[in-house]
């Protein structure tokens, strides 16, 4: 648009992603948080064999011994934790909780690292320092006074295998399977969908597969921001001539062009590399239609030229193919085109590229999972791969991009509200207590139980539970109804401040820091997106001498809560090898755990599907049937748009590092709504108009006011706003029913110009 009005903080970003801009942003992040002398040393230790695992994302490193792969957002994650700023008891004495609640999420965390164990004092509305042992004793007393099912154990995926294992052991000995987990808001559709399809809840590819693949299909993820080290992999693939087909409603710069800061020549010559060979701006929520379209076109291609469908593989390894074909035949092109926003010709082109490739990888993220049919979406991705035998052979497979750096590991070591009978039996055998058999709460169910007053206590192993969940206006008050909340954290956040009758705040030793226990310095272990388990040991002096490690705090609370415990908690934390021995004894795949994590690069968890062994009830890989094309009646109303909630480039989930979103051309603000120009014209909204957004389902009035609409290259019918500000618009019970994951990326909304709303 030529004469578009100027909007403060909104500028077009035309450069490639990465490059000199990324280098500049890194140095700014360091300057803002750290002494510049300490910073380079800290960053050099990221992802080194004897260093710590980058808390930024779960993308693997080659053998985990590459030199620090340059990564702007990894550097932000590291410097944010290694900051020299501190939140001390004096700070708390000077600021009431009410006044702290008036600060933004960005301001709260930017105050620095927590230094002391703190307890909330209702009389003065402040937190005051408390002795660790006194805090444990009081928590134990409260927990013993509750029924186990009234207690919620939340895990955010940064916790180590060791901390998470102790956490679940404590909860199960107490008597509950209530494990709300960040994964419930994230890749649960993967954890539910993949086992049904291929018999394992994890991806099947490794970095080597990317070196061999002939086609990459990238659906609903934004690696330039969220998995920056993946950009190196995509960059190499593109340079090798591998076509990369992207399905994403937004034009994400890094998926278009990338300048690799590690490539000296590219940097020196200001050149860049194209990433996507084809960019399909699918409508939000239109992936099922698009995937079905590609599969339908594939069938047509096979009918024409033969040899497209891998019939041998299908006969030997799968079930359900005929039903899939029947459903694809019954699905009509006009429906596919309308819901996906893509033309038949475009989808046929994608199918032709897919038919040409002998080895295809599909990568995907939150754009696929955070929908009311997230699990069904995941199944469709597998269907597409199975049609050409693309699972269990080199260079091919399914690649879910995990979120938190150890979210996958947490699941592996038992953080699940639906534990398997095998695992529970092992616990009983090894520890001699009977763990609860009935299923517990996931994240949404836990919050619903809190809203209803049924759950009384919440222990959070990291994270920002209330802010990460939908419908803040329902969740925030629920936190305040609790009898007890306990938070393990590095930095202050809003969930900590939504105080219960009694609230404790515990400062933890971070990933970058040295953890010394009775037997000496300890390493923890984590599992990356490609199921590699390896050790991580920090070297920096902890943020304060009062910080304790997460395993030590869990053990301390458990020891104080369970007087007749079958577990010798305090002994276990003298040396984390002892925790790993118990993991090995109770869970498959951890044989010789302590020995194998001492090898460079660690080891890979068993992934039967990579060997074409299908751990499903039928022993076969299972095709699915996705009826229809996700034509949700909620979107049928006039003027209804589909809202996706997004991360900016300067944020880590609820942690806001700064207020820019460089690649999307937003600077110094987050109160914007990305809109397609044609939708703007249709609704009479101009670039820069201030609008109110209202959710168009359910009877509760969910509203976000005074948001500036900006024209953006986003698919028609789709609008985008930032998480967590837009969480007020997401109904708590608007979930993918199969997995329980909130539909953060398919909220039907209506817009009104703010002035009209006021009138
Ligand atoms: N720097 C940084 N790194 C992170 C995080 C962070 O916040 N900051 N978070 C971590 C965590 S926990 C996670 S889960 C991952 C998240 O990483 P991603 O999966 O990349 O998550 P999002 O940024 O939420 O959104 C992903 C993309 O989905 C697209 N999208 C939205 N709706 C749809 C749709 O209907 N269809 C399709 N095809 N695409 C859609 C959006 O345009 C966006 O590009 O990253 C991890 N790494
Ligand atoms: N609208 C909307 N909502 C979403 C999403 C979305 O795309 N849209 N994404 C969802 C997803 S994918 C996820 S994973 C969740 C994230 O939900 P969470 O994992 O709960 O949230 P985070 O923002 O990652 O948690 C940040 C806090 O973790 C603490 N922390 C940081 N490092 C450590 C550490 O080493 N140890 C401990 N103990 N604490 C630490 C700090 O105190 C910090 O304030 O949010 C979900 N919510
Ligand atoms: Mo996530």
Automatic annotation (TrEMBL):
MF annotations from Gene Ontology: 4 iron, 4 sulfur cluster binding; formate dehydrogenase (NAD+) activity; molybdenum ion binding; molybdopterin cofactor binding
Q: Which GO terms describe its cellular component?
A: membrane; oxidoreductase complex
Keyword 4Fe-4S belongs to the record: yes
Among InterPro entries, the record links this protein to:
Asp_de-COase-like_dom_sf, MopB_CT_YdeP, MoPterin_dinucl-bd_dom, Mopterin_OxRdtase, Mopterin_OxRdtse_a_bac, Prok_molybdopt-oxidoreductase, YdeP_MopB
Q: Where is the Molybdopterin oxidoreductase domain?
A: 113-486
Q: Which family does it belong to?
A: Belongs to the prokaryotic molybdopterin-containing oxidoreductase family.
The molecule here is called Molybdopterin-dependent oxidoreductase alpha subunit
Naturally occurring in which organism (per UniProt): Variovorax boronicumulans
């Amino acid at each position: 648009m030529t004469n578009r009005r100027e909007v403060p903080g909104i500028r077009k970003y035309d450069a490639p992603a990465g490059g000199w801009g990324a280098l500049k942003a890194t140095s700014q992040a360091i300057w803002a948080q750290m002494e510049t002398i300490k910073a380079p040393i800290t960053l050099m230790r990221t992802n080194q064999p004897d260093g710590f695992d980058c808390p930024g994302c779960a993308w693997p490193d080659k053998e985990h011994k590459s030199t620090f792969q340059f990564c702007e957002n990894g550097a932000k994650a590291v410097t944010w934790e290694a900051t020299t700023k501190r939140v001390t008891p004096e700070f708390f004495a000077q600021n009431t909780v009410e006044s702290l609640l008036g600060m933004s999420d960005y301001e709260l965390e930017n105050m620095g690292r927590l230094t002391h164990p703190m307890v909330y004092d209702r009389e003065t509305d402040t937190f005051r320092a408390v002795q660790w042992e006194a805090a444990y004793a009081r928590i134990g007393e409260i927990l013993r006074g509750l029924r186990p099912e009234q207690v919620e154990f939340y895990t955010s995926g940064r916790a180590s295998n060791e901390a998470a294992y102790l956490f679940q052991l404590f909860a199960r000995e107490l008597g509950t399977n209530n494990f709300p987990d960040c994964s419930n808001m994230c890749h649960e559709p993967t954890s539910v969908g993949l086992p049904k399809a291929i018999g394992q809840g994890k991806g099947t590819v490794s970095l080597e597969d990317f070196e061999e693949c002939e086609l990459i299909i990238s659906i609903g993820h934004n690696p330039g921001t969220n998995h920056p080290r993946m950009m190196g992999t995509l960059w190499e693939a593109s340079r090798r001539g591998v076509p990369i087909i992207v399905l994403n409603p937004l034009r994400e710069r890094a998926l278009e062009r990338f300048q690799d800061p590690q490539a000296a020549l590219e940097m020196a010559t200001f050149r860049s590399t194209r990433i996507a060979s084809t960019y399909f701006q699918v409508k939000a929520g239109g992936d099922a239609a698009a995937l079905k379209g590609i599969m339908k076109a594939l069938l047509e291609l096979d009918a024409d030229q033969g040899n497209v469908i891998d019939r041998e593989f299908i006969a030997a390894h799968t079930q359900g193919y005929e039903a899939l074909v029947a459903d694809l035949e019954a699905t009509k092109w006009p429906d596919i085109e309308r819901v996906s926003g893509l033309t038949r010709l475009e989808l046929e082109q994608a199918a032709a590229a897919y038919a040409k490739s002998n080895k295809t990888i599909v990568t995907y993220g939150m754009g696929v999972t955070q929908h009311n049919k997230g699990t069904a979406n995941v199944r469709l991705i597998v269907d597409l791969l199975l049609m050409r035998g693309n699972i269990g052979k080199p260079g091919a497979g399914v690649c879910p991009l995990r979120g938190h750096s150890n979210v996958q590991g947490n699941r592996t070591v038992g953080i699940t509200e639906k534990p398997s009978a095998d695992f529970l039996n092992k616990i009983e055998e090894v520890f001699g207590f009977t763990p609860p058999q009935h299923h517990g709460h996931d994240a949404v169910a836990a919050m619903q139980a809190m809203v209803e007053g049924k759950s009384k206590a919440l222990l959070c192993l990291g994270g920002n539970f209330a802010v990460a969940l939908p419908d803040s206006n329902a969740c925030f008050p629920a936190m305040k109804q609790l009898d007890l909340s306990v938070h393990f954290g590095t930095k202050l956040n809003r969930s900590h401040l939504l105080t219960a009758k009694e609230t404790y705040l515990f400062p933890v030793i971070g990933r970058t820091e040295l953890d010394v226990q009775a037997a000496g310095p300890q390493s923890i272990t984590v599992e990356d997106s490609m199921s590699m388990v390896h050790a991580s040991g920090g070297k920096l002096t902890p943020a304060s001498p009062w910080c304790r490690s997460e395993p030590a705090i869990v053990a301390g609370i458990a020891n104080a809560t369970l007087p007749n415990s079958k577990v010798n908690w305090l002994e276990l934390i003298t040396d984390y090898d002892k925790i790993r021995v118990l993991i090995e004894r109770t869970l498959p795949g951890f044989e010789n755990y302590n020995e194998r994590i001492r090898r460079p690069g660690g080891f890979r968890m068993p992934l039967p599907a990579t060997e074409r062994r299908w751990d499903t009830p039928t022993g076969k890989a299972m095709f699915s049937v996705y009826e229809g094309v996700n034509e949700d009646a909620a979107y049928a109303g006039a003027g209804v748009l589909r809202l996706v909630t997004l991360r900016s480039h300067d944020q880590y989930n609820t942690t806001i590092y700064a207020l820019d979103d460089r690649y999307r051309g937003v600077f110094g603000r987050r109160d914007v709504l990305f809109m397609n120009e044609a939708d703007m014209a249709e609704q009479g909204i101009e670039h820069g108009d201030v609008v109110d957004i209202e959710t168009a389902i359910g009877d509760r009035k969910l509203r976000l006011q005074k948001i500036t609409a900006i024209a953006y290259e986003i698919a028609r019918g789709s609008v985008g706003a930032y998480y967590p500000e837009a969480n007020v618009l997401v109904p708590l019970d608007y979930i993918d029913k199969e997995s329980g994951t909130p539909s953060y990326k398919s909220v039907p909304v209506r817009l009104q110009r703010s002035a009209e709303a006021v009138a």
